[in-house]
TrEMBL record:
Organism: Brevibacillus aydinogluensis
Annotated EC: 3.1.3.25
Gene Ontology terms, MF aspect: inositol monophosphate 1-phosphatase activity; metal ion binding
Binding site for Mg(2+): E73, D91, I93, D94, D219
Cofactor: Mg(2+)
Family indicated by similarity: Belongs to the inositol monophosphatase superfamily.
Domain of life: Bacteria
Listed name of the protein: Inositol-1-monophosphatase
Catalysed reactions, semicolon-separated: a myo-inositol phosphate + H2O = myo-inositol + phosphate
Keywords carried by this UniProt record: Hydrolase, Magnesium, Metal-binding
One of the GO biological process terms: inositol metabolic process
Length: 278
């Protein structure tokens, strides 16, 4: 790690502070009516709360670290995030559809990267007051309990999770095949609707694996660090290291069945090629 321990602690404290503040603000705003807009379709929502919460987090970060960059889903940060050595990757509300419909099962995701290396990851579930976080080299925690994936899970015993978008593009990409192929190999499949929370649950052993064909950097930026620090494995579906500043497929799981899961996902990719998907 190329940053000082004191800096690392300051980054962790600020990330935790921002995540808690953002979560509390979301809960507060949920009590009153708020506007909901369609981004690209009826299944792609953004609310006034997403924007307000991101603005609040961005302002707080820049007050402490004016020379840091921020990559956030709602693009509140002015400027090119990729020009900065230290980059905060944030999703103010991960699971906006859940925020609107269920009023539970959404999270705040905040990660800090330095020259592409993940230093701090925080995923906060305000409804349950659960703070999942990790600092590179210092382990992962849920509130103050250390998270360690010590149990060896077999694929047939695994509870797996995925995010799907039942739209034309998802079908072209063969998401139907992913679910069908994996469903027969595992104990159960779940769709919770907040990728960041799903990855945090993998770190906590509540889920054994998470797979997605396509996520944005702010969806997996924090969850990836938390899963790795808990002893899990996180890569793209083809086994490459995850990027930190752009879209990617994601697989995150208990290390015991990583190779086996990858094998099935590789088959799925071949099937996708057969279908003419790119
Ligand atoms: P969001 O709520 O921040 O938009 C839902 O299954 C999960 O996928 C959530 O983490 C959601 O994040 C994310 N998501 C929503 N639309 C998406 C899209 N078009 N591509 C990738 N991820 C998306
Ligand atoms: Ca969104
Ligand atoms: Ca998201
Ligand atoms: Ca979001």
């Amino acid at each position: 790690i190329r940053v000082q321990a004191s800096t690392l602690t300051a980054l962790k404290e600020l990330a935790l502070h921002c995540a808690r503040g953002a979560g509390q603000l979301s809960l507060e705003r949920m009590k009153q009516p708020f506007t909901v807009e369609y981004k690209t379709s009826a299944s792609d929502l953004v609310t006034a709360v997403d924007k307000e919460v991101e603005k609040h987090v961005v302002e707080t970060i820049l007050r402490h670290f004016p020379d840091h960059g921020i990559l956030g889903e709602e693009s509140t940060f002015a400027g090119d995030p990729r020009q900065f050595d230290t980059l905060w990757v944030i999703d103010p509300i991960d699971g906006t559809t859940n925020f609107v419909h269920q009023q539970i099962n959404f999270s705040v995701s905040i990660a800090v990267y330095h020259k592409g290396e993940g230093l701090v990851g925080v995923v906060y579930d305000p409804s349950r007051d659960e703070m999942f976080y990790a600092v590179k080299g210092e382990g992962a925690y849920l509130n103050d309990r250390p998270l360690r994936l010590e149990r060896q899970v077999k694929l047939e015993e695994a509870l797996l999770c995925t995010s799907v978008f039942w739209n034309k593009r998802a079908e072209q990409m063969g998401i139907d095949l992913i679910v069908k192929k994996l469903a027969g190999k595992v104990r159960g499949m779940r769709l919770l609707g907040s990728a960041a929370l799903e990855m945090a649950y993998v770190a906590a052993g509540r889920l054994d694996g998470y797979v997605s064909l396509s996520l944005n950097a702010w969806d997996f930026g924090a969850g990836r660090i938390i899963v790795e620090e808990a002893g899990g494995r996180v890569t793209t579906m083809t086994g490459s290291p995850l990027p930190f500043d752009r879209k990617s497929s994601v697989m995150a799981c208990n290390p015991a069945f990583y190779e086996e899961l990858q094998h099935y996902l590789t088959l799925t990719e071949n099937d996708m090629a057969d279908k003419g998907a790119t």
